[in-house]
Amino acid sequence: MCGIVGYTGPRQAYPVIIKGLKRLEYRGYDSSGVALWRNHKIDLYKKKGKVADLEEIMIGKDVSSNLGIGHTRWATHGEPSDRNAHPHLSASGRFAMIHNGIIENYAQIKNELVKKGYNFLSDTDTEVLLNFVEDIQKNNNCSLEEALRIALKRVSGAYCILLIDSEDPETIIAARKGSPLVIGIGKGEHFLASDASPFIEYTKEVVYVNDYELAIVKPDELILKNLGNEKITPYVQKLDMELAAIEKGGYDHFMLKEIFEQPSTIYDCLRGRLDAAAGMIRMSGISENIDKLINAPRIIIIACGTSWHAGLVAEYIIEELCRIPVEVEYASEFRYRNPIVHPGDVIIAISQSGETADTLVALEKAKENGAFIFGVVNAVGSSIARISHAGAYTHAGPEIGVASTKAFTGQLAVLMMMALKIAQEKNTISKERYQMLLNELADVPEKVDAILKNATLIKDIAETYKDAKDFLFLGRGYSFPVALEGALKLKEISYIHAEGYPAAEMKHGPIALVDAKLPVVFIATSDSYHEKIVSNMQEIKARKGRIISIITDGDSVTPTLSNHHFTIPPANELIAPILNVIPLQLLAYYIGVLRGVDVDKPRNLAKSVTVE
Ligand code: G6P
């Protein structure tokens, strides 16, 4: 969702901001803009479409400036258009603002301002907030910082704001509640952004701004304050991220690069934690809280999207191995109903970005009720990682493609290790089974590599089915969430309607869709459900559906029922989801590309959903 970049220092701000906005494109957006301080006024440029469209209108313009802010907007209030794009200028033209988030009570504030004679040039809540700040500043004849502080006490909602003043050539004022903000500290310069990717080549020293904090940022000074105007000492952290991690590295798309990175990202996730030879799993977040985990009356998993699918796999695995009841909740539902959470309940929060607004608020709610929060997060230092009591990073590295791939397999690997560790401590797993699963888990990177070596077979399947109107994905047991994930991936990046279903439940509805045109993907690797799913395949075949099956190497029966099949190396059924999802990621990718979709930035989707 919206991305923000700001720069103050001796460099030319415009190229820093434009490059930064391009790095944030992955978040999803529909317009972009930049405001530059020049000769005691603010020059504003904004354009619907891509950052490249913005660059086009900038050709020939004098953009020399050492202070600027830029924005990629994902429309919430008002259609995607030039006039709704950020930055916005205040009524007098003195201040410019960019904003990520939603001001929920903007309509009420707008009414008050309209009564005072303010006109609005856009439909955005941001312009309302900006004029509200200007109105306070004028009426109280106070500093911009003070006016912003007063305004923020009145607004409800989420925000990350950057503000500049035409009368101040070097200061950016920033504030955050609910939407991410990280400040890069250079030598005599500062960078501000939604995540660190825009400034990774300039500095690795960062400060993550917390909710209800305000930052006053000049080239050689960073002051952090709370809304009560008290100074806070900035906590400077060192980033462990390289530029190469956010570049395509020779692949056509980030998504393909991220799919192919999985042998190494899964390995990185297991490294230092899983020691199969010694029969050990080392996870400090688990060991330090083992009593809470083994005595948990139940576990609630909270997540959205692909992370929610990882949660469903974890439900099956944790219940099987640890014998602890598990519920898996959509964060957006959990936060608004009246869920029963007891002190002692363990919440596992799963999130790639660590910034998903619904997940964040759901966790705050559970925390207030005394639950213990364990975060399974990919983005280091993100909001969810920070509000968790303990956690385990997935170590998949920055994920840029909107459709999550390597983060999902990283989540599965972490969740599997957690389940094994808890089961061992709780004595709910035999020594033999524990060791067998450790060995199997250690083999995963190699098996993923073997699957990826056959990627062209999936490309051929994609060619055959690229024009389908609908798809059905079916699986049972541990493969059911994988079917959901396969359908989600395809929908996201090919715009083909796809449904994931438990294979047996298919008889209660989706079977009505089956005809000779419908491709049905079966996740049918060898497991304890295999015979059952073979019967489900027969049911589809009898109705002339076109079957694509994901099967275990060596299975000679299932191919006879399938129009196409793809083989996976043999694996235990608890481990198989990590492998089975790989061909489904590839299938979605190749179909998306063949249909001409911008697979890294599919329409309407955002990588990091920072509004509810
Ligand atoms: C968005 C992304 C998905 C992701 C979901 C949850 O919809 O496009 O890929 O699964 O948010 O995000 P999180 O960062 O919390 O895992």
Considering DSSP H and I runs of 4 or more, what fraction of the residues is helical?
25-40%
- Sheet of most strands: 8 strands, antiparallel
Give the strand order of the largest sheet, numbering strands 1, 2, ... along the chain.
3-2-4-1-10-9-11-15
Number of strands: 27
Shape: globular
Distance between the termini: 11 Å
Number of helices: 21
Question: How much of the polypeptide forms β-strand, as a percent range?
Answer: 15-25%
Q: Under CATH, the topology of the largest domain is which?
A: Glutamine Phosphoribosylpyrophosphate, subunit 1, domain 1
Ions, cofactors and other bound molecules = 6-O-phosphono-alpha-D-glucopyranose
Textual characterization of the structure:
The chain has 21 helices and 27 strands. The chain has three domains: 3-241, Aminohydrolase, N-terminal nucleophile (Ntn) domain (Glutamine Phosphoribosylpyrophosphate, subunit 1, domain 1); 254-442, Glucose-6-phosphate isomerase like protein, domain 1 (Rossmann fold, 3-Layer(aba) Sandwich); 452-612, Rossmann fold (3-Layer(aba) Sandwich), CATH 3.40.50. The strands form five sheets. The protein has an eight-stranded antiparallel sheet, covered by helices on one side. A seven-stranded antiparallel sheet has the order 5-6-7-8-12-13-14, with helices on one face. The chain is α/β, with parallel strands linked by helices and 612 residues long. Bound molecules: 6-O-phosphono-alpha-D-glucopyranose. 6-O-phosphono-alpha-D-glucopyranose binds at residues 304-307, 351-353, 356, 359, 402-404, 605, 607-609.
